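Folded chain entry —
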Amino acid sequence: MKDFSTEADARIVIDDLLRQAGWDPADKSQVLTERSVQSSSLFVAEPLAVYGKEAVQQTADRDEIPTGRADYVLMDRRGRPLAIIEAKRNAIQPYTAKQQALPYAKTIDAPFIFLTNGEIIYFWDYQNDDARIVNSFYSRRDLERLVEMRATRKALATIEIPEYYIRQGETRQVRPYQREAMKALDHAVELGRRSFLIELPTGTGKTDLICLYLNRLIQAGRAERALFLVDREQLAKQAIEAIQDVLNQYSSYWLRPGMGRQEQQITVCLLQTMVGRYSEFTSGYFDVVIADECHRSIYGAWQTALTHFDALHIGLTATPSAYIERNTFQFYQCRDGQPDFAFPIQEAFKEGFLVPYKFATGITVILAEGAEVEEETYDPSEFERKWTNEDTNRKMMEEFDRLAWENFRELAPGQKIGPGKTIVFAITKHHAARLAHYLNELHPEHKGRYAEVITSDVANADDLIRKFKREDYPQVAVSVGMLDTGFDCREVLHLVMCRRVRSPILYQQMRGRGTRTAPHIGKEKFVIYDFFGNHEYFNDSDTDIFTGTGTARAPGGVRKPPKPPGDLVELGLQDEWLHAVSYVEVGPEGERVDKRDYLTNWEKTVRSAVNDDEIIRKVRDEEPLTPEEEE
């Protein structure tokens, strides 16, 4: 900490901080210094109308008027006081100067107070909140906006939650859980909370919800400018599309690297970009900061990009609260380790807000057991990292393609073109290219357009994503990382796991690529083709939805640390299915069997047999069997 042993030393720093916030301390139309509260020109004999209120009048009872000085007075464009600054040397904690500064501000009817010692700055909207630490002074426009919003502020309860809204040209109903989430936020805001955490499963409309709530805050005079932070380009694209669709009455833009700042109401930005640019903004520039998938955004320098802004902070996550880091709850000031609102994924499936899924599972001998060629052992965990086998990859693609064409109309009766939109999750970019090539070989009639590789190093990846979402072809997108999380395509009917997954959060995100509803094609279900035993590792099934961490050991050896990239060894072996690809067993009438019901019924049958079968009774009671019974 620098040594500001006197208030004069602190003021040198304060002047510089004011300049950084856009103020000119030498311009007396902007900043007044060392103003006596009673004798300055700010104290007048006639009532002074300031922001719709009357200033203190000079009366015979002058004892009620405080004496002293305001270190700084910040003025608006019409010469009215906006805020006072109480300056202290750094040995004094500025928060303790609240009661000294308050009478000065009230006397001249300045609605805001800054308390600082040159190191720490407190901002105090004394009519509404306690003083809180901020990273910078507010600009003149920041303070003027707060005054303007105060004049239009309404109780959130008086703002009606709409029944419907327009999204992508169709009328959508506000869902019950979205309505409850907005009410929970209303309650927390009215209590004076400034940080909030919302947990909604992937595919349940987090972005739509936040657009609706942002409109609500603006209508209530609680916000005018908002920042929407994401950590992936695809999330940024989807956010700006949703904002410009649902909130088209407000100006918005995507702040990209190298782009100049624009004075628009809603800014979408990559967190990685904002980390290097937050100092371009004052702490009061944004009224609301939304962080999508916020559990990834609160560490180190990334957190600084959030805390720089003195705003309402709303965190969105699809990660169940039991698996969110404690730091996330602390940042959003959640009590008892619980979000402000959560909608469990089980309820989302039960109520039809997410599409259920089934598994097509199988594993080849080589993927399960590895291989030994010329006394060299090839561990299955190093498949496509150290070695590859063409026949293994072809078998996965052939089996997926066969099943997908057989069942796509069952999954979505309105799907006209087979096999329906598909995402294949590959291990590496080279692996993705081979899988796409094998799929296109299966369908030469489409001249290479049936499957496309969509990875970060593909020059036209954005155009391919647009085509995948909006056009008939490609039907299959083969990707590494780029489409695992945050990718929104409602028509996806098939997810193909050609890679090992051991992160519970990533597994749930990948599964979520297929859960969105698509009424226009009658989507009733989607299929996860799992060739690496991932759902077994996480004990996931369509009847016992995984929401936690894996406890089982999947087939295929032990995962080893990745090795430096190099040429893969092509084994050139013929592979075969160790466990043929199959769906979960169905009952005699064609209905799906719940594994838990199956186990329960099996137990009942065994217990019943004990009473009816003499041999089973003897085994239970450890009685010897006759020779005839043993046979």
